[in-house]
Amino acid sequence: MDLVYNLLVALHLLGMAAVVGGWIAVRSGRTVVAPIVWGARAQLVTGLALVGIASAIKDDDHTVNNTKIAVKLVIALVVLAAAEIGSSRGRKGKDTGNLLDVAGGGAVVNVLVAAIW
Ligand code: HEM
What we know:
Layout (H helix, E strand, L loop, with lengths): L1 H25 L7 H24 L8 H26 L7 H18 L1
Helix pairs in contact: 1-2, 1-4, 2-3, 3-4
This protein binds protoporphyrin IX containing FE.
The site of protoporphyrin IX containing FE (HEM) has 22 residues, from helix 1, helix 2, helix 3 and helix 4.
C-alpha cells in the first residue's frame, strides 16, 4: 500500500508541476494550455485518493488534517474551474480574462498550504 501511496504522491507533485510550470510557461501568451487543465484534474483525483488511503491506514506516517484538506479541496476546485472555463473560452477565441492567473496562482496557494500549514 505504501508503494501505491508514494506513487500517488509522485503523481500529485507532477500534477502540481503541470499547473504551476504551465502557468509560468504561458503567462506571456495568456492562454490556458491543455497541460494546465489535465494537471488541475490530476490534483483533484490524486489528492482525493491520497486522503482516502491515508484515512484507511491512519498510522503516524499517514494522518489527515481535515480542515487543511477542506481548504485545499476548495482551492483545487477553484483552480480546476478556472482552468476548464479558461481553456474552453480560449478554444472559442473568447477573452479569458484573468482565469489563467486564478488557476496558476491558486495552485501556488495550495502548494503553500500543503507545505506550510
Ligand atoms: C491545485 C491543487 C493542489 C496542489 C497544487 C497540491 C499540492 C500539494 C503538494 C506540493 C504536496 C506535497 C506536500 C509535502 O510533501 O509536504 C501535497 C500533498 C498532499 N495533498 Fe495536495 N495539492 C492540491 C490539491 C489537493 C487536493 C484537492 C487534495 C485532497 C482533497 C490534496 C491532498 C493532499 C494530501 C493528502 C497530501 C499529503 C501527501 C503526503 O502524505 O505527503 N491535495 N499537495
